Amino acid sequence: MSDKIEIGNVVSMISFATVVRTGSFSAAAEELNCSKAAVSRQIARLETSIGVKLLTRTTRQIALTAAGQEMYLRCARILDEVNETSQLMGGMLTKPRGELRVNAPVVTTLFRITAMIPQFLRQYPEVRVHLNLSDSKVDLLNGGFDIAFWFGDPYDASLDFVKLRSFEMVVCASPEYLKQHGKPKDPADLKNHECIMETHLFRPGEWRIADDQTVRVSRGPLISNSVRTSHEAALAGIGLAFLPRFVVADDIASGLLVPVLTSDVSAQLALYLIFPKAHYQLAKVRTFVDFMSAAVTNEPVATRPINAAAHTVKKRVAAITRKAASAR
To answer: Are 16 and 43 in contact (CB under 8 A)?
Structure first.
């Protein structure tokens, strides 16, 4: 016996189960949106295919044979499964529900993405989010993910994307590094410095510091696909790093990192949601895109001017000094 599924037989089984349930060929034809003759042909096809008689027909009624009774028990389950699947799929397109697999770069935890997801779940309690934190490019089509956050240009032309917002970039280093190596005089001078290369945001060995200027950076003790690793390396004095300002704003304000080439760096780094084209039809994906578009746009980011941040730190230090003096 062949294991190949006979699609025609499945259709015939559905027709047979509908005839039995409705009690007539006419009622079954109306429910299946076809002619009475078409339903009759499906029943005859099924009986021929399995080699037994399923129905006995009179002018007034139909009756099941013994084989027909056994067949109906199984065909009714098939019909129920078809109806349930149809309702489920229809619901997935109209109401957010089911598991939503999301990939996000680790650095998004610094931008409160992980705090926004519980807010989404409170609003859509029938969705279950499976969040994977990875700075690597994930294969959305074959990797089982519904959607991903991505910094920088979308990497797959077959995907749809929504731009959430852009972030200011900054070249920075620790005071210890700058004391030992000095500050770069201009972008071309970066080739003479130790540069921490981050491959998640940009192509290896390249820093796009402005829309019309990309600088080659070939020296450096560390290459990583992790923004967080690059951040930690900069704090440790390993070299210069090129990072989103929101990642390093607190360190700059406290003096742990110092921005350089401030008049030359004007690059903006875009944050996108990327997803396979067909996935936007799913309500769980569509509502996630809409929710995050509003949440990320309205999320405040620490992008205070450096001078203002330094002024705030000085005011705090002065206040602490005054308080200590008055206590003596």
So the answer is: yes
